[in-house]
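Observation: inputs received (chain + zinc ion).
Thought: call the complex predictor directly.
Action: predict_structure
Action Input:
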Amino acid sequence: MECRICSGRLRPFADFGRQPVSDAFVAPGDPGPEFFFHLAVGVCADCSMVQLLEEVPREKMFHDGYPYLSSGSAVMREHFAGVAERLLATELTGPDPFVVELGCNDGTMLKTIAEAGVRHLGVEPSGGVGRRAAARGVRVREGFFEAAAAAGILAEDGPADVVYAANTLCHIPYMDSILRGVDTLLRPGGVLVFEDPYLGDIVARASFDQIYDEHFYFFCATSVRAMARRHGFELVDVERLPVHGGEVRYTLARQGARTPGPAVARLLAEEEAARLTEPATLRAFASRVAANRDSLVALLEGLRDEGARVCGYGATAKSATVLNYCGIGPDLVPFICDTTPAKQGRLTPGSHIPVREPGAFADPYPDYALLLAWNHAEEIMAKETAFREAGGTWILYVPEVHLMGA
Ligand SMILES: [Zn+2]
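Observation:
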């Protein structure tokens, strides 16, 4: 098996078995045939990039019905408003600046840029969320970004000062075409800024549900720097972010254009000290994950046997890995509440647990709620204080299985 970045040898270290497309919620009654793939992860012996061994065709994941909305969480709305303000203040200060966002989703970040009257373009392959962005005054180009699309954008709009992507680049196996496209599109002093789940946090927290079809790469400073250099870029800045269970924002500039900031050397040293990309570290992570799976299943089976009422909270994309890897079905978690209208009334992919509207959570409150959207735990627990006041207990499984009751 070959690395998608450098063709080096991949060393597999974790296997989650047969998995569905994480956002392919199925209609009840006749679910029809579902698409499954083998979810397993390896690390490149040469460039240290951690990546999936099997790639799901992009059209199966990112299409007109893609349900995830960036604007769905107040914390994320605030986060992206902050990103936009910072880009406006630091990178988009020249005459007539131009910013391109890859995977702009419903325009949560670009909305602020558009309101500031700055030239921008969101590239979005999922038509439904792209139309939401357009309705908010964001200029959207529907389609996948790659080298050819970049040439088209350059011809139409001229070079970009910033190419930005949040929770998008890690979704894209064909990084070679992406970075060639960014190289085409960026003006000489321009930057590529992207933020994605951080391998260091995933390993430290055993947050194995960050591993699902859409997350092809698990970046860290070590592997991103190697990837950047293959394309004439240099990693010039990194910043740890608390969102989505721990992310890093990477800034790439052309080699020689900017001096790397001190945070880069610090994070590289931290990764080296932790032996983050070494197979032994990653195999130990996989063992912790398997132990978490066993204790979560034992807990849920115990609750079922004693007649406790259990439900799931948040039919997230990442919950597909938890439910299918652990073999959790409606016998252990009879339903899951979720705020996304497109998921309600449907069944979770592979595990076939009914998804209900948020009101079902309090009607009446269950004894236990499995918090599948744990990356929004603080926001959710603040919103749902009445659940614990009513005697309810949260079940969490990151970094290990634990309960949070009244
Ligand atoms: Zn490699």
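Thought: report the result.
Final Answer: Residues 3, 5-6, 8, 44, 46-47, 49 surround zinc ion (CB under 6 Å). The first helix runs from residue 58 to 61.
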